[in-house]
Amino acid sequence: MKRLAPRGGLRLLSVLGLLWLALALQGCAALFGGGKAAGPDSAASAASAASAAAAGAPVVNVVIDAPSPLRELLQRNLDLVRLASLTRGDAVTGDELQRLVDAAPAQVRELLQTEGYFKPELTVRRVPPSAAGQAESVLLQVKPGPRAHISRVTLEAEGALEQAQAAGDVHARNVLAEWRAAWPLHTGSNFRNADWSDAKVSALTRLRSAGYAAAAWSGTSAEVDRDSNEVRLFLVADSGPLFKSGTIDVEGLERQEPATVRALAGFTPGTPVTEALLLDYQERLQKAGLYENVTVTLDPDPEQAGAATIHVRLHEQPAQVYTVGVGFSANNGPRASLEHVYRRVFGYPVSSTNKFELGQLRQAWTGEISTHPGERSRRWLLGGTIERQVSDDDVVMSQRLRAGRAQETRELERLVFAEVERGRRTTDISDVSTFAISGNVHVVLRQLDSVLLPTDGYTLSLQGGLGRSHGNASESGWFQRAYGRLTYYRPLGQSWYGQGRIEVGQVFLPNGVAAPDSQLWRAGGDDSVRGYAYRSLGPIVDGSVTSGPVILTTSLEVARPFLASMPSLWGALFIDAGRAGNSFGGLKPAVGYGVGVRWRSPVGPLRLDLAWGQEVRKLRLHFSVGIAF
User: Fold this and answer.
1) Domain 149-238: CATH superfamily, name plus number
2) CA 35 to chain centre
3) pTM recorded for the entire structure
């Protein structure tokens, strides 16, 4: 028994040794071709692979000869290229490499077809290493041939849209016509699989945004004729039902009333629910000044399409907000302001604002109380202003009380109001006061790419008024007031932007009748004629600048970013001209021109201008910036 143990141990060691030898031989066989007899070529390949593995280099180099965009496509997706990048430092069998070489042509054709090439010419060959220790190469030559083009597009709709169009429904006919016109892949254009996929997504999205929220493709196909190198597209969409507005479900209110939210909808039950309708509704809610984080969505249940629920999710603005501001401008010098907004006065659906401004040249209070926006974003208002304006030659005081109705939308602002006004102008040698009652209409039309930082579009401000005035140094009488200001923005080639402005106004006064100073005009300053002091361009009476019944100013400006890496910092060149006066016939415009810097900040443009006043022959710095916190 004592002698059996050593013999058993020897037998166990022998068995383990044989197993190790068999595994080692099997690995060698796999390395040199799976057990087949290894000739000189295979031995050299094995030596080369082993050397490459030891050096951590690729075991095979893949060279693709193809046009640049297609070469990049093949390098990203070919299995053969992946082999070269993923097996650095690892040996690869000849059979595995040959399998990938044989599969490469079919894979190349599949990849080229996604780019619209259906008749390529391909050559794939293996190139042995030129020296010991180098990796084998595979050369892939690709001639893609002409890209296939689209020869026919069939775009049809079925379901409620097609039925309504066949019945003569105008809305359905317009939707179908616009849908087909917007299809991007026209006859004669090149075919790419990515464009084909994007076009299908875009077309379906457009149909859903037109009021058919449950639209889906019934079938799509792209048939390729390889002989003619043409592609025929066939698409049929099931529109599903037309969704029409029903109830408006409101969530998130705490203090404000649901009636205000529903009044801002701007549409009646039964209106087709398009994407534009929902976005416009959401924008009106955001502009109301009562809510934040507003979201308007449609319940896409096809069973309720005839009276679909519109969900409004929102979060209210704080009931009261105080805002303190400091700033500086060349017009009014340093200033500080305090503003209070109360969005539900004494529990009623009414808002109020009060703003106090204290500056070196201007002191003012402005207050307003108004109803919450209702149908078509209209609201009633009652407001007042007390203002003191200091100039080089005089001091102007005005008190105004107005009552009226306002409407504010994305493209239109309108204010119709009656106003009672008292004005007083004091100089070293005179003290003149006026009192007036007037009816006024103010309209602002706006078409801009951005209200805050516009580069394309226009704004047009129009004002008209009729009133009766009386003064301590003038007769009583009627007056009329007309005013217009057009500002136009336009891109000018690469990186350049242009801005033009024209301002014209006139107060029609009978002889001996005077209007309040706030109804008249003076020119000069930051937003008027640069190069001259604020309110310094007007008719001269007794050696002092006064306000005139006519005004005409113009401005041209070109600007561009200083550096591509700093797109918010611009340089500008400008020229301004204009003046206020007693009549257009005797008006001699003052001219100013110069250079400026613009910072297009998230809160609006901040401007620094250095202008030469040709009439006064002086340089003047115009600077405006404000901070609210």
Assistant:
1) membrane protein fhac (3.10.20.310)
2) 67
3) 0.69
